[in-house]
Amino acid sequence: TAPFDVMARRRDFPILSRRVHDLPLVYLDNAATSQKPRCVIDCETRYYSEYNANIHRGIHSLSQQATNAYEEARDAVQRFIHAARREEIIFVRGTTEAINLVADSYGRRLGPGDEILVTEMEHHSNIVPWQLLCERRGAVLRVAPINEAGELILEDFERLLGPRTRLVALTHLSNALGTINPLKRLIVLAHAQGAAVLVDGAQAAPHLGVDVQALDCEFYAFSGHKVYGPTGIGVLYGKAALLAEMPPYQGGGDMIRQVSFAGTTYNDLPYKFEAGTPNIAGGIGLGVALTYLQSLGLAAVAAHEQALLTYATVRAAATPGLRVIGNARAKASILSFVLDGVHAHDVGTILDREGVAVRSGHHCAMPVMDHFGLPATVRASFALYNTHAEVDALFAALAKVREIFP
Ligand code: PMP
């Protein structure tokens, strides 16, 4: 296979040629949201300028064209995550809505004393929906702790699993630490106790290959905007047999078969879970984004990003007063760190002045910050279009921070 040509890929992303404070943009906030390639931007424009129409209802040409494009996007998602069946792909707003859908619908089978197991490294969107569910159903939330390297402690995870565990909800790749969880093993352990598993794939989808059949997870959630697609669109994958048994999440148009005041029947999968007019342009754009990413070769992209992370980690180790937060053996795409004596927000502000975009804060993972006794970290996160020169720009900018805060 051809080597990964990062400079050619950069030309696919129009925004990368812009300047910030009259300096070239160095965009290292990809874990928050990724930039969009021209093919995704063009496809949204084409939809609105050529065949904008509502889907699934109209028999006129535009509606059929829009319906076809939207349903082809579902096929692209199915291919991307290797789902067995297209009706297992439910379009939602994003990871957050996907998790809330499962908490609301699947959650109705939980009762008092039933347990949900999450990990200490979860994003708030994989914590709060379960807390709300526990309040509604009298269930109990258990938390598997992490070690000082930011890895899940396997013995504790196993110890916390039991016959009362109905659901395990955990991230594939931590957005605050970059830790990759050994999912396959954890899912086998959960299944041995009869628990269903929901995987938060928001960070993993752009960086790690996803094969929901190989993982054998019950649910997998991810967001379009982190995988080079539009905002406001995301995916919930669920095993068909489970989805078929689950009650609808929201009521409205498209999710019904027959409505009368005597009673209503629901549509087939996946439409049962897709009430109302969806983000049509977003869905079509997500399909294009995933097809684009796959066309580059996921392994080549992952190798490029891993090289960037390794290089950044080496440079971090050579930077006095810089402490990396999250030193797991298996990591991807994310370097979280603190600079002694400088608040993360000051670091972020000075980096911005140098054209370098990073995230400073708690990364919607306050329990992770609590674990490390920090209010915030600085997070540089890499995407397929980042370069070694940009890593150098990051460290040059960090040297400026040190000049200002000696
Ligand atoms: N989980 C993880 C691990 C994330 O990084 C994010 C986004 N920061 C989410 C869930 C939530 O995704 P969204 O805001 O797109 O719903």
Task: Give a nutshell description of this structure.
The chain is an alpha/beta fold and 406 residues long. It is built from 14 helices and 17 strands. Helices cover 39% and strands 17% of the residues.
User: What is the helix fraction of residues, given as a range?
Assistant: 25-40%
Low-confidence stretches: none
- Percent of residues in beta strands? 15-25%
Distance N to C terminus: 47 Å
Continuous helix count: 14
Question: From the helix content, strand content and strand pairing, which structural class follows?
Answer: alpha/beta
Bound molecules: 4'-deoxy-4'-aminopyridoxal-5'-phosphate
**Beta strand count:** 17
Record keyword descriptors for this entry:
lyase activity; PyrdxlP-dep_Trfase_major; pyridoxal phosphate binding; binds 4'-deoxy-4'-aminopyridoxal-5'-phosphate; alpha/beta; 14 helices; 406 residues
